[in-house]
């Protein structure tokens, strides 16, 4: 497998985590959470705080189940990102 194919597979693996992180970060930023930094900076911080653990969940799901895209992995992703978003919102 060449480097471009490997990179494409890696991007496809973590894309759900980054997509959900972007949506949740938008909601958190619009609700005014994240301090007094400019909106784009708050949004970027929220994305990183959400996408990195989400990516770890997807990689762990691949390792533990032996396949990408299992429902249990996506359920864990929703649980982890929801928990992190609630923590970021101060709830």
From TrEMBL:
Judging by the UniProt lineage, the source's domain of life is: Bacteria
Q: Does the keyword Transmembrane apply?
A: yes
Transmembrane stretches, start-end = 6-26, 47-65, 71-90
Query: Keyword annotations for this protein?
Result: Membrane, Transmembrane, Transmembrane helix
Its recorded name reads Uncharacterized protein
């Amino acid at each position: 497998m060449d480097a471009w194919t490997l990179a494409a597979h890696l991007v496809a693996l973590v894309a759900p985590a980054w997509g959900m992180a972007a949506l949740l970060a938008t909601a958190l930023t619009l609700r005014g959470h994240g301090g007094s930094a400019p909106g784009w900076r708050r949004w970027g911080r929220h994305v990183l705080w959400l996408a990195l653990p989400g990516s770890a969940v997807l990689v762990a799901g691949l390792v533990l189940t032996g396949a990408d895209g299992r429902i249990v992995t996506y359920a864990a992703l929703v649980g982890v990102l929801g928990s992190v978003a609630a923590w970021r919102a101060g709830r």
